[in-house]
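Milestone M4 deliverable, item 7.
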Amino acid sequence: MKKFDQQHPAIITSFIKGDQEAFRFVFNFFYKKLYGFVYKITKSDYSTQEIIQEVFIKLWSIRASIEMSESFDAFVYTISRNLTYNFLRDASKKESLKKELWEAIKMEQYHTENIFQSAVFTTSNDSNRMTYLLMEKLSFYKQNTRKK
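Output delivered:
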């Protein structure tokens, strides 16, 4: 798959020159990808949205210094990663953010455990149901063979 800068070099050039439509295009192209990237690290919707907002603010503010010879994708993801780590470092110093992140991590773990338990329960229920159906067929078979 081609990178953004290979697919849309004119958009990047316009973005660097300050074109707001080009910025909107960059934003729409990267938002969901960056959301997933940052959310995997923070496990917090609120924190992820805050970080992504900072990413795009930073991109806009330094757009004139962006080098076309470098990968724009790598540039955007590097900014995202660095701002995410900065956020986590700052959060570790602030008790309220630390609690929010810890709760988000616990909820993610709880959600994962529920999915796993549901899958195990469904599998065991399916297994029990199959056993019951087999027993019914077996007893029907036994009843019909005795009558003959």
